[in-house]
Amino acid sequence: MTTIEQFTAFYTDLASMQVSALKNIYSDNVVFIDPIAEHEGLPAVEHYFEKLLKNAKYCEFDIHKVLSTNDDGYLVNWTMRFTSSRINKGRPVAVDGITVLNILNDKIVFHRDYYDLGQMVYEHVPLLGRIIKKIKKGLS
Questions:
Q1: Domain map (residue ranges) of the chain
Q2: Would you state the CATH architecture of domain 3-115?
Q3: Could you read off the pLDDT of 7-24 as tens digits, one per residue?
Q4: Distance of alpha carbon 124 from its chain centroid, rounded?
Q5: What is the mean pLDDT of residues 26-37?
Q6: pLDDT band at 117 (very low <50, low <70, confident <90, very high)
Q7: Buried b / exposed e along 53-76 (16+ C-beta atoms within 10 A)
Q8: Are 1 and 9 in contact (CB under 8 A)?
Q9: What pTM, to 2 d.p., does this model score?
Q10: Can you tell me which residues the record assigns to a coiled coil (predicted)?
Q11: How many C-beta neighbours within 10 Å does residue 139 have?
């Protein structure tokens, strides 16, 4: 199985994954960036996932498309669906995003996620969510 195939299989059902499995697809010196934070090195990424998965009751990714940008780069288009006791009163949330990956020696060395943090978090905070939705409606 190629690294990109392992990546897509891994993220299909993230809530049931084992943090220890990250070492199978990520390099020891991976740089992992998302709208929340930046993590350098496999131990930092493992710690980040431990915290994320602790609060997630359910989390899966629908991988829509994987595009190769060159010999070692990929763009992955996805929708993440999750529930968390801390967001949206535990009700399901869907977030669309794109991941940029670089692979070297069959391991991911760079991972950057692009998604709307408002869609993920802010729109589900009671008062703030109403304000953001009103602003979006006014702009459309």
A1: 3-115
A2: Roll (3.10)
A3: 998 888 776 778 888 999
A4: 18
A5: 95
A6: confident
A7: beebeebbbeeeebeeeeeeebeb
A8: yes
A9: 0.83
A10: none
A11: 6
